[in-house]
Amino acid sequence: QAKYGPGASAKEIKLGQTMPYSGPASAYGTIGKVQQAYFRKVNEEGGVNGRMINLLSVDDGYSPPKAVEQVRKLVEQDEVLALFQTLGTPSNSAIHKYVNAKKVPHLFLATGATKWNDPKNYPWTMGFNLSYQTEGAIYGRYLLKNKPNAKVAILYQNDDYGKDVLAGVKQVLSGANAKMIVAEATYEVTDPTVDSQILTLKASGADTFINITTPKFAAQAIRKVYDSGWKPLHLLNNVGASVGSVLTPAGLDKSIDIVTVQYYKDATDPQWKDDPAMLEWRAFMARYYREGNVEDASNIYGYIAAQAMVQVLKQCGNDLTRENVMKQAANLKNFKQSLLLPGITLNTSPTDFAPVDQAQLSKFNGKQWVLFGDVIGGN
Amino acid sequence: MSSPLLQVRGLHAYYGSTHVLHGIDFEVRQGGITTILGANGAGKTTTLRAMCGMVRTQGDIILGGDRIDGKPTESIVRMGVAHVPDGRGTFLNFTVEENLRIGAYTRKDKAGVQADYERMFNYFPRLRERRRQQAGTLSGGEQQMLAVSRALMLQPRLLLLDEPSFGLAPRIVQELFEIFREINQASGISMLLVEQNAALALRLADHAYLLETGRVVISGSAESIRNDESVRRSYLGY
Amino acid sequence: MDLLIHQVLSGLATGGIYASVALALVMIYQATHLVNFAQGEIAMFATYLAWTLMQAGVPYWGAFFITVAAAFVGGVILERVVIRPVENGPILSLVIVFIGLLVIFNSVAGWIYSYTIKPFPSPFPTQPLFGNTYVTSHELGSAGVTLTVLLLVFLFFRFTPLGLAMRAAAQNPVSSRLVGVRVGWMLALGWGLASAIGAVAGIMVAPIVFLEPNMMGGILLYAFAGALLGGIDSPGGAVLGGFVVGVLENVVGVYLGTELKLTVALVIIVGVLVVRPAGLFGKVHVARV
Amino acid sequence: MQEPRAQALLEVTGVTVRFGGITALDGVSFKVMRGTIAGLIGPNGAGKTTLFNCLSRLYGFSEGEILFEGKPLTDTPPHGIAALGIGRTFQNLALFRTMSVRDNVMLGGHARSASGFLSNALRLPHVQREERQLGARASQVIDLLDLQAVAATPVADLPFGTQKRVELARALMSQPKLLLLDEPAGGLNHEEVDGLRLLLRRIQSELQLTMLLVEHHMNLVMRVSDQVIALDFGRKIADGTPAEVRENPDVVRAYLGVEA
Amino acid sequence: MDQPPVSSVTPPAAVPAKLRAMGTRQLLLLGMLVVVACVLPFVLGNYRVFQLTLALAYAIALLGLNMLTGFNGQISLGHGAFYAIGAYTAAILMDKAGFPYWATIPVSGVVCLVAGFLFGLPALRLEGLYLALATFALGVAMPQILKHKSLEHWTGGAMGVVIVKPDAPEGIPLSQDQWLYFFTLAWALLLFWVAWNLLRGRVGRALVAIRDQPIAAQAMGVNTAIYKSLTFGVSAFYTGVAGALGAIAVQFVAPDSFTIFLSLTLLIGVVIGGLASISGAIYGALFIQFVPNIADQISKAAPWAIYGVFLILFMYVMPSGVAGMVKMLRHRLSRSK
Ligand SMILES: Nc1ncnc2c1ncn2[C@@H]1O[C@H](COP(=O)(O)OP(=O)(O)OP(=O)(O)O)[C@@H](O)[C@H]1O
Ligand SMILES: Nc1ncnc2c1ncn2[C@@H]1O[C@H](COP(=O)(O)OP(=O)(O)OP(=O)(O)O)[C@@H](O)[C@H]1O
Ligand SMILES: [Mg+2]
Ligand SMILES: [Mg+2]
C-alpha cells in the first residue's frame, strides 16, 4: 500500500529548489540546470519506481528575502515533497527555521557550511558538500604533520564560505600553533584582481600559502604568486582546483606542486579522460544539457547530488511521505557514485547529516592531479 | 517685385494639444525684413519656432521654393536659416569662442569663418574681452550679444530674430540695429524680426504683421503699420 | 618600503584598468552628459566577440580591429534603436534603461559563453620587461594603449569640429539643432566611440582579470570613481583618476587591512569630491542668475 | 518722532567684486531712501546684476559693506535675506519650472511662514491655518498681476512676458521692504511697459515698498524712479535725479548713445 | 489697470476652494483601495499575504526614496544601505536586546533618520553624478561594513541574524502572516498619510523648488542645506522603517540581502512607479516584487535578460512611470468627456 505525502502521487514526485539564476552568483545557476537535465534523463528511463520527478527550480537571485519568498511558494502553494539543493549559505540560513517548522525535508543543500549537520536541532535539514570547515581542517592537519614550522599566509573570500574554510584551518592551527599563521588577507568577489593581496602576503615572509578562493581569483592568485617570484607551499581549496577552468588559464607550469583536497573527479583532469563514469557523464551532457559547459565543475557536482537524491527516492519505495524521505536520506549506506573519487562513498545516519565527509589530498604535477595519502575522514 | 524668400500659408502651431497659431499667412521678401508685432503671449515666439521645426505645425512653410514644414530643425538650419531664440540659447558651459565656433559648425570655408569671427568681435568689443570666459557667467546683455553673433556666424539666408534687443543697453540696441541694416544691405540677408521695441523694428523693416492670440489682425508695409491708430497706441506710445 | 613600491606599481597596473574604462565613461559623458552603467558590460561583451574571433582562427590584431569596429557600429545601433525612444525622457528613465542593458548583456553573455573563466591572450611579450617582477609587460603595454587612446580622445574633443559639436549636443540639444548639429547622430556617434573605447579597454583588461561575464562588474565602480575624481569632463583627469584609485586602493589595503579597503578608498574619494566638487581636473561650471 | 534726515534703507559702501581678472564691481557706494524707487542703469556687463547678487548674498564681496536698515548684510545667510525683507526677481528668469504659477507664488511666501517638517507631516491645525493664509494672499497677488487665468499652469508652458510677471508676483509674496527688480520690462511692449510703470508706483505707495530697479527701458526708469544710479565698468558714474543723470555726459556716452 | 487694492494684512476669511485637498471621488477611490487591502489577506493564501507584506514594505521604502530623488532631485543609488540599517537595527534589537518587534520599527526609523541626515550633510556639496557616486559607494560598501569583524558580535557577520516572527496579539484570530500584513499595512497607511501631508504644503513646495531652481529657492528664504539634509533623513527614515518591516517578515537579515542590487531595485521601483508621485510608490513596489518572478518563469536560461527587456519596454511605454501614465489617461478621459 503506497503512502503519499504532499507533492507525491502515483505518477509524480515534486521537488523544489531555489537557484541564483540571476544576480551576482548566477554562475552557479548551472547546478540547477544540470539537475533538471538529469531528472529528465531519469524520467525518460522510467522515473523512480515508476514515478516522474518534477523539479521546480526557481530563481532567488542569491538574495535571502527572495529565497524565503520562493521557498514559501514551493512549500505552501506548489506543495513540494522536499526541497533539494537550494543553493547558498545565506539563502538556506534564511529558510532554515521555516522549513524545520513546516517539517519539509530540506535536503542536500548546495553549500558547505557545517551548521547543516545538526540533526538534533534541525532534524529536517541535511547538507551535502564536504564541509568547508572539514576541508580547512585537512589543510591544517597536513601542515602540522608535514611542515610543522611553516609560516602560513592565507587569502580568503570575505564571506561565509571563506570564513568557514579559514575557521577549519584555525581549528587545527590553534593554541601554540596559532602562531604559524603570519598573515591573512581578504578579497571581495567584486575586486578586479587579488594581485595586491598576494604582494602583501608575500611580504609577510610566509613560506606556505593557503589559497581559499573561487575559480577566477584562484587563477589570478596562482599566476601572481608565480610571477612575483614567491615560492611557497601552495594549498589550494577544492572550489578553485579545476584543471580546465583554473589551472589552465593560470598556466599549468605555474601550478606545479599545488596541493588540494578532492572528493569527486575533475572533468578537465586528463587522467579521467577515459574513465567510464566520466564518459557516461559526458554522454549525458551531450544529450541532455548541450548548452552546459563540460569544463565547469559545478556540472559534475550537481550531477552527483542529483544521483544521491534519486537514491533517496528509490529507497523510499512506495512510502513517499516527508517523514520517510527524511528517514531514507539519513540512511545512505556507502552509496557509491562513480564520479566520486575511488574509495569515497556517501554515508548518513540519524546522527550524521553530512553525506560527504571523506576526501583525499592530491598534488598537481603539471598535467594532472596526483592523489596521495589515504582517504581522509569518515566517521 | 522679387519672389518671397519665405512664404507661410495657413500656419497652425501646437504645443501638445494646445492650439497656439490659428492659420496665419505672411512672407519675407528676398533681401527684405519683416517684423511681427504682438502682445505678450500672442504667438510671436511660436511663429519663429515654427519656421525652424521646433513646434508641431500644420500648413505650408516655403523657403526659396522648398517646403520646409515638417523637416527637422537641423535640416532647416542647414538650408540657411539662423535663429536667435528667446532665452538666448547660450551654450553655458562653452567659452565665448566655442560658442562662436559652434555657430559656424555648418560652414566649410575656414578663412571666411575666421574673418567673421573678427567681425563679431568688432561689432561687440565686449565679447572680445570675454572670449575665453565661460559663457554662462556673462551678463545678460553680453549673452544676448553672443546669441546674435552666434547666429550671424552661420552666414544665413534668413535670420530669425526673437527680441534681439532684449536686455541690451540703449546704445548697444542702436548699434545692433545699425548692424542689422548694414548686414541686410551688404549681404542681402533676409530677416524675420520679433521685437518689442516696435518703433525700432518698424524703422528697420519693410513689412509688418500684427499678431493677436495666434491670428494676423493687421498686415502691410512698415510705413502703413506705423501710421495705424491701434498700433500707435499699443506699441509706439504716441 | 619594498612592499610599498610593489603595491604602488601593482596599483598603477590595476589603475590602468580603471583608467581605460573611465575614459570610455568620459567619452559617453561628453556625448550625452550621462554615465552609462552598461558601459562595462558592453566592453565585456565586445571582448567575448574578440575571443570568439580568435577561437575561429583570426589573428590577434585582426580580431582586435574587427572587434573595435564592430563595437563602434554596435554602439551606434544601440543608441539609434534602444536609446532613441527614451532619448527625451527624464534622465532617470534613461538610467533604468542602462540598468536594463547591463543585466541583459551580463545575462546573455553568461548564457552564451557560460561563467567559467577564459584566458585571453596579450599582444605583449610574456617575458617580464627587463627581468623585473614589479609589473608585467602586458600591464605596461596596456597602460601605453590607454594613454594612446587618451591622446586621441583629447585631440578629438579639442581640435575637431565634430568633437565640439558632440559636446554641444550633450549640453544643449535645442541650441545645437539651431546651429545645424545633427543631435541624434552625435549621440549615436558618442555611443559608438564609447563602445569602441570600451572594447579596447575590455581587450586590455581581460588578460589581467580573465574573461568572464562579471569581469567588469567591480571595475565599473572604480572606473566611475576614477572618472569623477579626475573630473568627468576631463579625459586626462579621468585617466589620472583611474590610476590614483588603483594606487589608493592598494595602499589602503596594506595599511588598513583588506576587509574595508573598498570602503575606505571610497570614503577618501568622496571626501576629496566634497572638497573639490568638480573633481581634481574638472572644469567648475558656474551657474549664475 | 521722525529723525530730521530720512533714514537710508539700503546703504552700499565701497563694494568691490572680482572674478579672476575681471572687476565686476569697483568700490560702488550709494544709498537708497526708504519708500523711494531707485533706478540702476549702466551698459551691459556694468555690474548691475552682480550688485543684486551681492544684496542676495549669492556673491561674496572682497571689500566694502552693505547695510540694510543699518545692519550689515554679511551677518545673514543667503536664505535669511528674504526674511530680512529683501525680495527680488531675476534677469534670466529663475522660476520653479515644473510648479504651477500658484505654487511658485506660494513659495514666495516661504520666508513669511514658519511651519517645519514635523508639523507639516502631521498637518497640525496651525499649519492648516498658515496654508490658508498663504493661499489667500497668493490669490490676491495673482489677481493683482492678472495671472488668474494661468494660475494652475506649470510656468514652463508660459510665454516669456508672463513668466516675468510670475517672478514679480513671487517676489511680492514675500512682503519685502526692499524689492530688487532685474529688468522687469524685458519682453513687454509699449503699452505693457506703461502698465508696469503704474503697477510699480501703486505697489510702492500702497505697500510702502522701496525698490531698486535695473532696467534698460529708459522710458520706464526715468519716469518711475526718484533717484537714478549709473554704473559703468563696475564703477558708479552718476547718482541723482532722473533729469540729472539723463544729462550726465558720461552716462550719455557710455550708455544712452547719441539720441537717447 | 485697475486692480483691487493690495494689502499685506490678513486676508478675508473667504478662501478659494482648497485646490489641493482631495476630491470626494479620490477619497472614495482611496477608501475602496483600503477596503480591498483589508480583505485580501482573507482570500489569499499565507504565501501571497507574505508577498504582499513585502510589497507594502517596499512601497514605504520607495516613497522615501521618491521624496529624495523624485521630489527633491537628489539621486540616490544607495538607498539599500538605509534599508539594511533599518533591517539590522530591528534584528539586533530583537535578537540581542529583547525588544518586542513593534518597538523596533520606530527605533529603526530614527536610527536611519540620523544616519541619513548625517550622510546628507557632506552630500550637500555634491550634485548630480557626484552625489550618485557617493550614494552608490554607500550602497556598495554597506554589506562589507555589516560583515566587518568589529561589528560581528552584533551583526552576526556573514551569517546574519535570525529573528522570530511575531504572533498576532492574544485574542486576535489571525495567522502570523495575516497579522504582520496588517501591522505593515498600518505603518504604510500612516506613512503615506504623513508623506502626503508633507508634500502638499510648505515643505513639499520647498522640496520641489530646490529641485527646480535651488538658487531662487534660497533667495525666497528656503534654507536649502537644512531642507536637503532633512529630506535625506526623512527619506532614510522611511526606507529604514521599510527595512525593519521587511526583516521581520523575512525573519532573517544577512549582508547578502542588501547588496547594491537592492539599491538599484529601489531606484527601478521609483522610476517605474513614477517620479515625484506618491501613488507611484505602490505601482513601483508591485513591479519590483512581482516582475522578477515573471521573468524567472519565462526563462531559466537568462531571467535577467528578460527582466532587462521588461525594464526597457516599460520605459518606452511609460517614460514617466506608471503614475505618469495613469495621470495622462485620467487627463485624456476628463477631456474627452
Ligand atoms: N512650451 C509650451 N507649452 C504649452 N504652451 C505654450 C508653450 N510655449 C508657449 N505656449 C503658449 O503659446 C502661446 C504663445 O506663446 P509665445 O511664446 O509664442 O508668445 P509670444 O508672443 O512670443 O509672447 P512673449 O512676448 O511673452 O514672448 C501662449 O499662450 C503660451 O501660453
Ligand atoms: N561668475 C562670474 N564669473 C566671471 N565673470 C562674471 C561672473 N559674474 C559676472 N561676471 C562678469 O561681471 C560683469 C558684470 O556682470 P553683471 O551681470 O553684473 O552685468 P550687468 O550690469 O547686469 O549687465 P546686463 O545689463 O548685461 O545684465 C560681466 O562682464 C560679467 O561677464
Ligand atoms: Mg516670445
Ligand atoms: Mg544684468
Tell me what you see in this structure.
The complex is a heteropentamer of chains A (379), B (238), C (289), D (260) and E (337). Chain A is α/β, with parallel strands linked by helices and 379 residues long. Chain A is globular. Chain A is built from 11 helices and 14 strands. The mean pLDDT of chain A is 94. Chain B folds into 2 domains: 4-80 and 156-236, Rossmann fold (3-Layer(aba) Sandwich), CATH 3.40.50; 87-150, no CATH class. Chain B has helices at residues 44-51, 73-78, 96-103, 110-123, 125-129, 140-152, 170-187, 198-204, 222-226, 229-236; strands spanning 4-15, 18-29, 33-38, 56-63, 66-67, 81-84, 158-162, 190-194, 207-212, 215-221. In chain B, strand 7, helix 7 and strand 8 (190-194) form a beta-alpha-beta unit. In chain B, helix 3 packs parallel to helix 6. The radius of gyration of chain B is 17 Å and the shape is globular. The two termini of chain B are 33 Å apart. In chain C, 74% of the residues lie in helices and 0% in strands. By secondary structure, chain C is mostly helical. The longest helix of chain C has 31 residues, at 2-32. In chain D, strand 9 (227-232) and strand 10 form a beta hairpin. Residues 1-5 of chain D have low confidence and may be disordered. Chains in contact: A-C, A-E, B-C, B-D, C-D, C-E, D-E. Chains D and E meet through helix 2, helix 3, helix 4, helix 5 and helix 7 of D and helix 7, helix 8, helix 9 and helix 10 of E. The structure holds adenosine-5'-triphosphate (ATP) (2 copies) and magnesium ion (2 copies). One adenosine-5'-triphosphate sits between chains D (19, 22, 24, 42, 44-50, 91) and B (130, 133, 137-142, 167). One magnesium ion (MG) is lined by residues 48-49, 91 of chain D.
Major sheet of chain B, described briefly? 6 strands, mixed
CATH architecture type of the largest domain in chain D: 3-Layer(aba) Sandwich
Mean pLDDT of chain B: 93
Return Rg of chain B in Å: 17 Å
Quick one: CATH superfamily of the largest domain in chain B? P-loop containing nucleotide triphosphate hydrolases
Shape category of chain B: globular
**What ligands can be seen in this structure?**
adenosine-5'-triphosphate, magnesium ion
Which residue ranges of chain D are poorly predicted, with pLDDT under 50 across at least 5 consecutive positions? 1-5
* Main β-sheet description of chain D: 6 strands, mixed
